[in-house]
Every structure is written in C-alpha cells, then in structure tokens.
Amino acid sequence: MGQSNCSKYYPFNKDHVSEYEMFNKKGKADGTMKYTVSNVTHSEGSITVTINSEFFDKKGKPVMSSAFDMSCNGGTVTMDFKSLMNADMMKQFDNFETEITGTNVEFPNTLTAGQTLPDANIHIKMNMGGINMTMTTDITNRKVDGTETITTPAGTFDCVVVSQSSSGKMMMVKFNSTQKTWLAEGVGMVKSEDYNGNGKLQGTTVLTSYSQ
Predict the structure, then answer these.
(1) Could you tell me the sign of the dihedral formed by the alpha carbons of 211, 90, 80, 42, in that order?
(2) Looking at 86-90, 109-113, 200-204, which range is the least confident one?
(3) Residue 157's Cα: distance from chain center in Å?
(4) Among 3, 47, 88, 95, fewest CB within 10 Å belongs to which?
(5) Which fold has domain 17-210?
(6) Domain residues of the chain, as ranges?
(7) Four-point Cα dihedral 98, 131, 170, 138, nearest 10
(8) How far is CA 49 from CA 23, 46, 133, 177, in A?
(9) Which pLDDT tens digit goes with each residue over 69-109?
C-alpha cells in the first residue's frame, strides 16, 4: 500500500490523492474536495507531509485551494489546526488579510471505543478594510464512539467513528455544532457528517476515490 508505519489511519505517501463529494442537508450534491499529499519530509523520529486541498463547486468550478501540514511522531498523528477551516470559511476569508493561530488536532494510532481525544482550537483575526474581526472555534468532547463498516463510491471500509463538538463566535454570532467522522486504516477520512446545535444534519462528505 505504500503506507507509512508511522501513521495508521492517514496516508503519508507522496502523491496520494483522496477525492470527496459534499452533500447539503437535503442530500443534494454541493461540491467536491480533493486532497493531495504534495511533500513528505523525514526528520529524526518523525514524518511531516504537506497536504494540498482543493474545493470545487457543484459545477466543477474551482472555488478555493489551500495547504496544511500533518506530522507523525511516536504513534500520534498531529494535524495542523488550519485543517479545521472548512470550504465556506476559507472562501469568506480569501480576500482578507488574516492571522491564524491555534492548537493542532491529534489522532493516536490506537483508537478504541470510549477513548477521549485532546481538544483543539483555531483563532482567526481578519483585517477587513481597516476593521479587525475575529473568529474562534473550539473543538471539544472528542471521543471514539466505536467501529462501523460503511460503503461509499470508493468501496467498503471498516471504520473507527470519532465524534466531536464545535463551538465559537464568528463576527459576534455564536455557533454550536457536532461532527462525526469515519476513519479507515491507510485511507483516512471515509465519511463525515455535520450537525447543527439542535442535532439536525447539515451536511455530509463522502470519499469517492483514493489512490495508493
């Protein structure tokens, strides 16, 4: 498979490509995402990869692209907090001068039902025509719910299910949501679901293809 032994769930091999389709709360196609491992750096005891992310609208038109790092050290994968920014967030901030800080997301190689995972956060400061705006998102209640076998257009996968809560403030407006993510060994994210504060499904992302 060309998969690094350092990372159990996320692919760390150069040129690995994962493609996803996004659906809105009504189940209608809402765009696609493509993640490519563009660079792999080995240092003593750790591996760091750069992942390019591309977002396309439902007509296939490029909307946004960005990059973030992911590293593996001592059996734990650490994901750059910039990965917490979804397509809508990046689209909104694309034309503004931004300063982004935060706490990275950690995924141990060993994930078992009932296990709790460290919190994460991201803080974005924007300069919008001389006006400073801030946005903060806190990722809490991260835990492993269990295992599940799911099927997507990319195949059938044995997954670990991880859930989390998101809360924060964006331009004086508070928000709360929850997410569920299905992870498969050597593949990474296979599916994710986003729910609003009332527990209603807002969007789904599914893996449509991936390369080794």
Answers:
(1) positive
(2) 86-90
(3) 18
(4) 95
(5) YmcC-like fold (2.40.360)
(6) 17-210
(7) 50
(8) 28, 10, 31, 29
(9) 999 998 899 999 878 776 566 666 666 788 889 999 999 99
